[in-house]
Amino acid sequence: MAKANSSAYVERYADVASSLCGQTVPWLQQQRADAILQFTEYGFPAIRDEDWRYTNVSVLDKQHFAMAQKSVSAVITADWLKAYQLVDAWSLVLVDGYFSAEHSVLADLPEGVTVMSLAKALQDAQYATVLEGKINGAVSQDENGFVAFNGAYFVDGVLIHVPAKLQVSKPIQVLHIATQELTAINTRSVIVADELSEVQLIETFAGLECAYLSVAVTEVFVGQNANVTLHKVQVESEKAIHFGGTYVKQARDARFRHDNFALGGVLVRSDVHTDLDYASECELNGLYLGVKRQHIDNHTRINHLKPHGISRQLYKGVLDDRARGVFQGRVVVAEDAQKTDSQMNNRNLLLSSDAEADTKPQLEIYADDVKCAHGVTVGQLDEKSIFYLQSRCVDEETARNMLTFAFANEMVDKVKIKSLHDLILGQVLTRFPQEGINKEWL
Amino acid sequence: MSASTQEINNLINQEYKQGFVTELETNTFLPGLDESVIHKLSKIKNEPEFMLEYRLKAFRHWQTMKSPEWAFVKFDPIDYQSISYYSAPKRKEDGPKSLDEIDPQILEAYKKLGIPLDEQERLAGVAVDAVFDSVSVATTFKGKLKDAGVIFCPISEALRDHPELIKEYLGSVVPITDNYFAALNAAVFTDGSFVYIPKGVRCPMELSTYFRINAANTGQFERTLIIADEGSHVSYLEGCTAPMRDENQLHAAVVELVAMKDAVIKYSTVQNWYPGDKNGLGGIYNFVTKRADCRGANSKVSWTQVETGSAITWKYPSCVLTGDNSVGEFYSVALTNNYQQADTGTKMIHIGKNTRSTIVSKGISAGKAQNTYRGLVKVLKSAENARNYTQCDSLLVGDQCGAHTFPYIEVKQPSAQVEHEATTSKISEDQLFFCQQRGLSAEDAVSMIVNGFCKEVFKELPMEFAVEAQALLGLSLEGSVG
Question: What are the domain boundaries of chain A?
Answer without folding.
Answer: 4-277, 385-442
